[in-house]
Description:
Elements: E1 3-7, H1 11-19, E2 21-23, E3 40-42, H2 46-60, H3 65-76, E4 81-82, H4 83-87, H5 91-97, H6 104-120, E5 127-132, H7 138-144, E6 151-155, E7 161-163, E8 172-176, E9 184-188, E10 192-194, E11 196-197, E12 199-201, E13 207-208, H8 224-236, E14 240-242, E15 250-255, H9 260-263, E16 275-277, E17 283-288, H10 294-311, E18 319-321, E19 324-331, E20 338-347, E21 350-353, H11 359-367, E22 370-375, E23 378-383
Parallel strand pairs: 3-13, 12-14, 17-19
Antiparallel strand pairs: 1-6, 2-16, 3-4, 5-15, 6-17, 7-10, 8-9, 11-15, 18-22, 19-20, 20-21, 22-23
Helix pairs in contact: 2-3, 2-6, 5-6
Amino acid sequence: MFYYRFRPFSELSIKELIYNEIFFTSTDECNDPFDSKAFYEFSDRVDYWSNVLKIVGGKIGGLDEMLINAIAERISNLCPMTYDDALNLDITQICFDMMLQKNAALFQSLAVCFNQVLKLYKPESSYFACFSKINNEPVMWSHYASQHQGFCLIFKPIDGKLRQFSPYKRESIRRKTPNGLAPESNYGLPDAFIFQDVTYHQEVIPLCGFHRLPVAVTGKKLSEEERVNLVQEQSEQFLHKHDSWCYEQEARISITPRMSWVFGESIELTSFERLFYYEPTQLVGIIFGARMSKRNKDRLLEILLEKQKRISYSADYERIIFDFAIFEANLSNKRREIQIDIEKMLTLGKVYNKNTPKFIHAYEKWKDGWGVKFEGNRSSKIQVLL
């Protein structure tokens, strides 16, 4: 199996190619404003809202049970409401509208703390890099590859993952956390990112907003099976898109910083923290766009030959080296289709064109997932199927 990443022909994309960079984007940076958006909804459970307000009251004091229940009743009458709606609730105005005791200072403190609690447990931001399971969709070439003037990178997963490049591996995200459990906290990052398929749906089924909050809100401690199912449901929301995007056949790798309760705040990653370096041996091919100029093809070929030479150098970590395939996308003269045609194979810096004897053998090995595994001074042939 291969995953395809469409890129425009630009200096930024060339830089990414040279240095094995991959950038994890955010929802705000996507052309689909709903991409990786989590949907949560609060119901009209007065008892749950009372428990939320008790948590808030424990932080500010001055809230008796009668006042808590009255405010909870009014909030529940506004439900169902989304998590975003709850964050925008004007608790101060709700209290004044109810003709409760005119304690403006208390109500303002309540509003601030209520909002702080919801913000602390709000749905995390997910950051991701997008791939496709197909390489010949015309709309993909048009939208994401400079109107067919760009290129498409071909990645080979190992154990279903894209590994970080060992010498430049980012191991954690560190934050000063004055409101957290410690003055400074870390969020650990994986050695490799799992490729996950995106699924397409027309309707949104929101999850329970109360399950974002401390267990004291619902008063029910989930069993291990229920907890695992809940985490899975929450994670799967990041992989849902509207079915109008199904032509992309997307897969993605992602990171979703959690444990805001440890940090004392929701974690948002900077642009630099979202820049990673992938294992260069997992980039196993490229497709030149149907409208790419010869000059630009030659420029990329020069870069690829140099990359293959560097890969052949010894390294002090385990890795699998694959041959590198170069394809060209061509516009069909018979149908409105893109044809992907193999042109060259690169084997440790050597170029095999279609008319050379070793070409067919190298290409067949490449398609079947054969590579060479290096472990220190030892090497062995290995077939990677997934």
